[in-house]
Amino acid sequence: MPEPSELEKTGFPLIHLLPNALTITAICAGLSAIRFGVQGNYVLAVQLIIAACVLDGIDGRIARLLSSDSKMGAELDSLADFLNFGVAPSLVLYFWALQDIPSVAWIAVLFFAVCCVLRLARFNVTSKSETCDQDSAFFEGVPAPAGALLVMLPMYLSFAFSDAPLVPDLLVCIYMAFIGLLFISRVPTWSFKTSRVSRESVKYILIGVAVTGAAFLTFAWITLIALCIGYVGMVAWAWIDSDLSSNR
What is the overall mean pLDDT for the chain? Predict the structure, then answer.
């Protein structure tokens, strides 16, 4: 019989399970968002999807800090992204306002989910490619968490301005399909993982984070609306800038 490895002899450090535990927690949040969407508790459903976005943003970083990243963790993270950012937001939107036109709305839901899984598959393939530039400041297409936050913009508007008329169902379907296209597009979007700032700008970044956090805690939905609009503007600017650079 083969000798047991050193890992089998010494055991697995419990702290190294933390990143995968966070990913599992994010999956539970996404599944719970679907449940509360079915039950009509749309505010909590949206909050759970936002929580899944936060967990997605920290699990990989913690794994790298602990040197506990693994192939299993990467696959688990990708599956969680599809559930939390491709399936949950589109289903919550469907339960929220799209059941009056179920056939057209379901096509939009399927289109969004398929675009999300294609975007994740493309990212997985390119990230494993030897020609992939790991230090690139740009992604191709809108990342899955950003797309999930963007697609729920009609819900933020409804929660923030309860007296305003609802966004027409067909317009929500068209908007969902548009965000799906951004997933699979070649539009350059900034990667905050590799972005750098000068030392002189650090204090302004920290002040901006503090102001944004305070605004989110005080006016959550209006802040999310502003962040979505700002992100779309940033994507548009990056797209225009890349076109100008390629034509020089």
Answer: 83
Q: Residue 92: how many CB atoms within 10 A of its CB?
A: 25
- C-alpha to C-alpha distances, 234 to 17, 132, 241, nearest whole angstrom: 36, 24, 10
What are the angstrom distances between the C-alpha of 20 and each of 59, 77, 98? 7, 8, 34
- What is the distance between the alpha carbons of residues 243 and 226, in angstroms, rounded to a whole number? 26
CA–CA gap between residue 14 and residue 111 (Å, rounded): 40
Q: Tell which wins on pLDDT, 20 or 191.
A: 20
| Both structure tokens of 50 | 């936002």
Given CATH 1.20.120.1760, say whether it is the number of domain 13-129+138-243: yes
Average pLDDT on 93-117 reads 93
Three-state secondary-structure class, residue 189: strand
- Tell me whether residue 127 is exposed, middle or buried, using C-beta atoms within 10 angstroms of its C-beta: 0 to 12, 13 to 18, 19 or more: exposed
Q: Which of 73, 195, 90, 92 is nearest to 144 (CA)?
A: 90
Instruction: Provide the residue ranges of all domains of the chain, joining segments of one domain with +.
Output: 13-129+138-243
